[in-house]
Amino acid sequence: PADLQMEAAMPEPTRLERLLFRLEAQHRCLGWAFREIGNRPGIVFEMGLGHGRTYDHLRSYLPGRDIYVFDREVDCFADCTPPADRLLLGDIGDRLAAAAARFAGQVVLAHSDLGSYGEAHNTAMSALVSRLLPPALAPGAIVLSDLPLDLAGAQSLPLPAGTREDRYFVYRNG
Ligand code: SAM
Questions:
Q1: Which of 1, 32, 112, 124 could pair with 160 in a Cys bridge, judged by C-beta atoms 3.0 to 4.6 Å apart?
Q2: What is the value of ipTM here, to two decimals?
Q3: Which residue, 93, 84, 88, 43, is CA-closest to 70?
Q4: Would you state the pLDDT for residue 162?
Q5: Which residue's alpha carbon is nearest to atom 19 within ligand 1?
Q6: Does ligand 1 lie within 6 Å of residue 22's CB atom?
Q7: Interval between CA 114 and ligand 1 midpoint (Å)
Q8: Which atom of ligand 1 approaches the CA of 26 most closely?
Q9: pLDDT score for 96
Q10: CA of 164 to the centre of ligand 1 (A)
Q11: pLDDT along the chain (174 residues), means of 10
């Protein structure tokens, strides 16, 4: 039958499709998180400014929220540069430890996007964010991450319906 031939000919997702699915998952998780936090008070942590794509998304959909942005460098689109007083430049280990003490219990949404192609780097980032972020989180805070985390007091949640890629991670603080 024709449909069986189609199925047999269906290749594994290509690198292009995997990137598409990953960005789609990131976009869906962010949209879901915006609805989840609603009008609850609290600040936002964006960990990993990169080119500023997700920071641009956060500031557009969460106008009026204080968004603190972490990165070791500013290498973003010029129009995505955070205000100087919201930019926590330097190694995430130092900056997150200080920010978690400064903003203890105030973060209602944290987005962590610190991964790279290096396995050792990713393992170190997972461990570091898992250890340092929890004191900053408000009750019920949402955490989205490109890397798996082990956050004391938080539960892992399934990805929003319709995501075709499972390499994004969602948590809710208890
Ligand atoms: N969210 C960004 C976007 O949408 O454009 C992409 C972030 S990119 C995947 C990861 C970022 O994490 C890089 O800009 C890198 O400099 C930053 N980063 C990685 N390790 C870090 C560390 N130890 N301290 C601070 N920043 C780090």
A1: 32
A2: 0.99
A3: 88
A4: 84
A5: 114
A6: no
A7: 4
A8: 4
A9: 98
A10: 24
A11: 64 90 94 96 98 98 97 97 98 97 98 94 98 98 97 96 86 96
pLDDT on residue 163: 86
Residue type, 44: V
User: From ligand 1's centre to the CA of 81, what distance in Å?
Assistant: 14
Both tokens assigned to 98: 């200080």
What confidence score (pLDDT) does residue 2 get? 61
Answer yes or no: is the C-beta of 27 below 6 A from any ligand 1 atom.
Answer: no
Per-domain residue ranges of the chain: 43-173
CA-proximal residue: ligand 1, atom 11 (nearest): 48
Give me the CATH code for the 43-173 domain, please. 3.40.50.150
Q: What does the block give as tokens for 2?
A: 């024709």
pLDDT of residue 125: 98
